[in-house]
Amino acid sequence: MGTILAAPPMDDGFTACITNLCTALTGVAFMSTNVADFGGKCNSNALLRIVSTIGGTPTATVNLEGSFDNTNFYNIWYSLPASPDTWVNTALTITTAVTGLYVLRRVGGLPWRYVRLNVSADTNVTLTSDVASFA
C-alpha cells in the first residue's frame, strides 16, 4: 500500500491528474492498493472509475472512503454521472462485470484529502480502479 499524489498542479485551472488505486484486486482488502492524496490545493471534484470482472457467483461490497489525515477514514459522498445532483455515501454492491463512474465531491461538510476503496466482502470479483482530479 502506498500513498500517491493525485492533486494536479492546477496552474492553468484545467489540469487533471489520474491515479491508480488498485489493479486486479481480489478478496477482502481493508483498503485499496493505493491511497490517493489530493493535497491541500484540490478543492473541487474527482472522478472515480471502478472496473469489475467476475467469475462464478459474484458479489462485492465496496465503500468509497475519504480521510482528512490518512488515519481516520469514513464513507464519502458520490453521485453517478447520470444523476449528478443525487448524492449518497452508501456502500456499492457489485454483482456484474461493469465499468462504473462515480463523481466524488466534498459535500455535507465532510472534508477529505485522501481517498481509498475499502472492500469489505468479495466473492469472485476482481477490481481495478483509478481516480482523476479535475478543476
Summarize the structure.
The protein contains no helices and ten strands. By secondary structure, the protein is mainly beta. The model has no long low-confidence stretch (mean pLDDT 83).
Ordered list of secondary-structure elements with their pairings:
Blueprint: E1 2-5, E2 17-26, E3 34-37, E4 45-67, E5 74-75, E6 78-80, E7 83-88, E8 92-94, E9 98-104, E10 114-134
Parallel strand pairs: 1-3
Antiparallel strand pairs: 2-10, 3-10, 4-5, 4-8, 4-9, 4-10, 6-7, 6-9
Please tell me about this protein's structure.
It is a single chain. This protein has 135 residues and is mainly β. It has strands spanning 2-5, 17-26, 34-37, 45-67, 74-75, 78-80, 83-88, 92-94, 98-104, 114-134. Strands 1, 2, 3, 4, 5, 6, 7, 8, 9 and 10 form a ten-stranded mixed beta sheet that branches. Strand 6 and strand 7 (83-88) form a beta hairpin. The radius of gyration is 14 Å and the shape is globular.
